[in-house]
């Protein structure tokens, strides 16, 4: 939708352009009197002026030159050149001053050459009026005094008018440059303020991540260490079967500690700086889960993992990991079917299926859960523009996720576990 303020600004600019064209053309039509042969002047004081055929051509030429004014913002050099031509012909230098202001506004680095050129053209215009008896009849005619401009007073008036015109033009240029500098300063200040706000928010988030990291380390690290210690002691005194189970518990506790330390590192260093999990670890993940006693039928086909983006790489591994965790919590003794297929042309397809063992319904979890795992899978899929279908279907619980391929950015690398 178009901004009403922008529409009003555009209408105002066009209105100013039309006004400049009309007034400038009328002024220059009268100013053709300046050029010898442009008009026939009556000898008596205050006599009428008659535009000659040559003067009509000059008037038409000046009108065409003034028609460049609407393009003074985009192509100010066109206006400047057109004004220079009109001034050198001897009609007036008004369009030249308009073109100079527009050019310096658009190209501030051209202030000196443009100023020097304008002053030179105006000087030629004034010198020609003051040293010749044929040029510059418009000023006395405008003053309704006399067509004879041989007096010294009209020469002085011509110089004063030129100096005043150049002074006003310089003041307009300086004012415009001051406004541009002020606008630039405001833009820089706004950008710095926005940057400070972003940094402040990031500091708050970092402080919160560090607090969570401390809480995780203080609470979970101790408990997992105790579990690992007791599992090691049990492994020492138990029989073969119980010892194997204890060894699995100890190994999983160690793995959980390693994962937790990695997550704590992620929290402390911020997103995108720590090494994420990787789909290369799906094979060892399935092997560990089988070693813990789970029955898993798996099909895993991963092509070009080195080309995968870090977020995509991590998401595939985490979704498989959470799907297995969910299946083990709700149906630890049921077989689990895992299908993972990843390739650059088709993205990732992850499908984990386990039977519902409680009368066609999901069994109560063997270990407590907060219900955040399924939500996390959906969020990871949504973050990458993928889809996730999760729920019971025909006696099974299904996690079916599709992710579009994400190419690794040059210069970055996907971490490995």
What does this structure look like?
The chain is α+β, with helices and mostly antiparallel strands and 417 residues long. Among the domains are: 147 residues, no CATH class; 140 residues, Histidine kinase-like ATPase, C-terminal domain (Heat Shock Protein 90), CATH 3.30.565. It has eleven helices and seven strands. Strands 3-4-5-7-6 form a five-stranded mixed beta sheet, covered by helices on one side. A two-stranded antiparallel sheet has the order 1-2. Helix 2 packs antiparallel against helix 3 and helix 3 runs antiparallel to helix 4. The radius of gyration is 42 Å and the shape is rod-shaped. The two termini are 50 Å apart. The C terminus is likely disordered.
Q: Measured on Cα atoms, how large is the radius of gyration?
A: 42 Å
Low confidence ranges: 360-370, 413-417
Q: How would a crystallographer describe the biggest sheet?
A: 5 strands, mixed
Helix amount, in percent?
Answer: 55-70%
Structural class based on helices, strands and sheet pairing = alpha+beta
How would you sum up this structure in a few lines?
The chain is of the alpha+beta class. It has helices at 4-31, 53-66, 76-89, 94-106, 111-131, 138-142, 152-237, 240-269, 282-291, 310-330, 372-383, and strands at 39-41, 49-51, 296-302, 336-343, 347-355, 387-393, 396-403.
């Amino acid at each position: 939708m178009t901004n009403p303020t922008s529409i009003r600004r555009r209408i105002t600019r066009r209105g100013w352009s039309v006004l400049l064209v009309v007034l400038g053309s009328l002024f220059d039509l009268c100013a053709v009197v300046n050029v010898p042969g442009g008009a026939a002047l009556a000898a008596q004081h205050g006599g009428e002026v008659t535009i000659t055929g040559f003067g009509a051509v000059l008037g038409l030429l000046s009108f065409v030159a003034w028609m460049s004014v609407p393009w003074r913002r985009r192509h100010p050099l066109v206006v400047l050149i057109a004004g220079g031509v009109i001034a050198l012909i001897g009609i007036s230098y008004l369009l030249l001053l308009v073109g100079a202001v527009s050019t310096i506004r658009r190209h501030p680095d051209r202030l000196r050459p443009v100023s020097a050129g304008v002053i030179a053209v105006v000087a030629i215009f004034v010198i020609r009026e003051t040293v010749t008896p044929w040029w510059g009849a418009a000023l006395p005619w405008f003053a309704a005094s006399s067509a004879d401009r041989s007096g010294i007073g009209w020469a002085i008036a011509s110089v004063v008018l030129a100096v005043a015109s150049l002074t006003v033009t310089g003041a307009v240029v300086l004012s415009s440059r001051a406004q541009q500098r002020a606008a630039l300063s405001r833009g820089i200040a706004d950008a710095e303020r926005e940057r400070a706000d972003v940094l402040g928010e990031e500091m708050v988030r970092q402080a919160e991540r560090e607090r969570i990291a401390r809480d995780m380390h203080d609470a979970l690290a101790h408990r997992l260490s105790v579990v690992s210690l007791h599992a090691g002691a049990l492994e020492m005194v138990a029989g073969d079967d119980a010892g194997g189970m204890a060894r699995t518990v100890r190994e999983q506790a160690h793995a959980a500690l390693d994962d937790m330390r990695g997550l704590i590192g992620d929290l402390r260093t911020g997103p995108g700086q720590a090494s994420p999990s990787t789909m290369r670890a799906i094979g060892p993940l399935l092997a560990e889960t089988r070693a813990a006693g789970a029955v898993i039928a798996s099909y895993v086909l991963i092509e070009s993992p080195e080309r995968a983006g870090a977020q995509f790489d991590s998401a595939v591994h985490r979704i498989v990991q959470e799907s297995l965790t969910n299946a083990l919590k709700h149906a630890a003794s049921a077989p689990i079917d895992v299908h993972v297929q990843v390739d650059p042309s088709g993205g990732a397809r992850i499908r984990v299926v386990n039977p519902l063992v409680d009368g066609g319904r999901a069994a109560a979890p063997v270990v407590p859960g907060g219900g955040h795992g399924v939500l996390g899978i959906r969020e990871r899929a949504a973050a990458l523009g993928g889809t996730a279908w999760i729920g019971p279907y025909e006696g099974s619980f299904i996690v079916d996720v599709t992710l579009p391929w994400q190419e690794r950015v040059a210069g970055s690398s996907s971490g490995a576990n």
